[in-house]
Amino acid sequence: MFEIPEPGTFAENLPIAYDAPADLKKWPSLNNQRVTSKTPYMVYNGTLAGCIRELLAKPLKQISLYDIVTERQPAFDGNVLSPRDAAEIAMRRDFPKD
Hints:
By secondary structure, the chain is an alpha+beta fold. It has helices spanning 48-56, 83-90; strands spanning 21-26, 29-30, 33-34, 41-47, 66-70, 80-81. 17% of the residues lie in helices and 24% in strands. The protein is globular, with a radius of gyration of 13 Å.
């Protein structure tokens, strides 16, 4: 079972390794809703920062179908980040702008 951290857990004082390996995964969907009886598939493999950028470039109405899977870090509890988590991380002052 995936663990998703609660919103607001990405305090600026906890470092995030943006160069950590990560996968952007998409859930199969029906009527733009996740089909959780199926397994998500990989659409992008790279760094955490790269996955966040790829996710945030997706159409807004489909963004809820994606998760980012990465290694656990002190700044977040689980290894699966939701689109909401990714957006919150992207707003940090230390998020790489390139």
